[in-house]
Amino acid sequence: MRKAATTRFTTCMILCATSLACAHQLTGHRALPTVTIQQQPEFDSAEAVLTALEAADEDLRTFDSGIAYTTISDLGGAITRRTGELAFASDPATASAPRRRFAVSFETLLRGERYLTGDRARQTIAFDGRWLWEKIHSEMQINKREVVRQGETVDPFELGDGPFPPLPIGQQKDDILRRYDARLVPWSDSLEPDPDLNPRFADEKREIDMANALMQFADGSVQLLLVPRGAEPRFAEIRLWYKPDDEGRLLPRMSRTVDAQSRDVSIVQLMHPLNINDQAREDLLQITIEEGWSLSETRLQTAEPGGTTRTSPQGTP
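The chain above was modelled as a monomer; its predicted structure follows.
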């Protein structure tokens, strides 16, 4: 009798489905070959990886890439996956604290069995150093939320605290080691197909194939496992994958988080090659408000306790 799929099997299947979709974008939907193991970066500890990452991020001013963002609900295993473009820019706000901006423009949406494109799927999320913007094209709605007080700065990708699921960009070694138990683990850890799966059954063979696809996506990377030290963390664990470019510079490849409360899983995958230190993608980073759209604005501090939100169509009082 076939064994019932465990949560780990289901998670593996979903994660691999994300990778498979990304790989199809690059291969034109051809069948994926068996994983060929590439030469792995040589590090002997998490501290050595973090040191290399600090060096890699020293002159990072801009980058942009394709992105896939998948969330999996622990309750029922509901899947949501979006794909699009990511842009990042670091501006010299002050000598010690650059203003870091990012934007993600999603163009496709897979929710359960429904696959959407066009305005039904389009969503833009941007952080300008102070405000977090969300632009929902299907509703002609823009939500603008203040997440940083005026005069302050924040890292939008700070692990565990940023307004977006973690991306391994610009993190400081000392900060990571202070807040997390950091371990260097094999690049394939948590990705391998479960040995109990039987390829004679079609559904289990699909899980094996998709697991191999995800391993192909991560092949050649180095993986860090971060477990938070403090009480009541946002994530139970954070896994980060980095892959070196042709010059050996470690670049972000993928992140996987498990929510500490809901146990939901989030995965962010970046399509290589990344465009490093080109012109900032202001077409993505700057949110424009077209005529007829509604704008909802929420501030951190208001005159009345509990906060207020003002919503009105753009161009009206």
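Helices lie at 7-27, 46-57, 173-179, 202-218, 282-285.
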